[in-house]
Amino acid sequence: MSMALKQVFNKDKTFRPKRKFEQGTQRFDLHKKAQASLNAGLDLKQAVLLPHGEALSDWVAVHAVDFFNRINLIYGTISESCTDESCPVMSGGPKYEYRWQDEHKYKKPTALPAPKYMNLLMDWIEMQINNEDIFPTNVGTPFPKNFMQVAKKILSRLFRVFVHVYIHHFDRVLQMGAEAHVNTCYKHFYYFVKEFNLIDHKELDPLVSSALQEDRKPVRLETSRPDAAALLWGGCVGQGY
């Protein structure tokens, strides 16, 4: 990362404190292996592949935490521009709106300003990844039977942060000269969730229609499918709770 981007993506801009893996644990070693693959300049499609001998749950857990940290950081850089006034609804353009629902206060899907939605989303993800019953840190402690279900929900909700940033705050990303970094983060995320089928394809399908409306410059992703998922644009949308 260039010095200019390091100044943009600094710890003071982090929306939430980073979750770290403890040294000496199996998942710390796996995290380092994943980072080494990326830093080695490997093709992102290759970098996301499950390493030989590793369990899929461990690989997904490590990436869910890493994506949380990085997307948290990306949103932190534009959060000053994302206010109740500028973003009274958590959306991805005029046709797509995200409503919040949880097991506590918001038991029915509820329309919220984007900053409020982001706070609830990040709080909820933090609660999941800090829960030892869901994301165990001790070697030998098995993942719960519903782990993949929870991980898919985490990644699906993190995708919505990309949606909002690209559609409503990409101008700010451009002003910071951070579009290459954000696009790389998105491509890494995209290839990972596609490799392991972690996000419903319907949530990714509207990418092209949004891009055409927003007139963003596309970054082509390597894929065998000539559909909406074949393109990464500076605008993307989805819907759901």
Which sequence of SSEs, written as H and E, runs from N to C?
Answer: HHHHHHHHHEE
Largest sheet: 2 strands, antiparallel
Q: How would you describe the oligomerization state of the chains in this entry?
A: single chain
Question: Unreliable stretches, pLDDT < 50, 5 or more residues?
Answer: 1-17, 206-240
Organism: Polyodon spathula
GO molecular function: kinase activity
Keywords: Kinase, Transferase
Pfam families: Mob1_phocein
Describe this structure in words.
InterPro entries: MOB_kinase_act_fam, MOB_kinase_act_sf. GO terms for molecular function: kinase activity. It comes from Polyodon spathula. The chain has 241 residues and is mainly alpha-helical. It is 50% helix and 2% strand. It has nine helices and two strands, in the order H-H-H-H-H-H-H-H-H-E-E. It has helices at 3-8, 26-39, 44-47, 56-78, 114-129, 147-175, 179-195, 201-204, 207-214; strands spanning 219-220, 231-232. A two-stranded antiparallel ribbon has the order 1-2. Helix 5 (114-129) packs across helix 6 (147-175). Mean pLDDT is 76; it is low at 1-17 and 206-240.
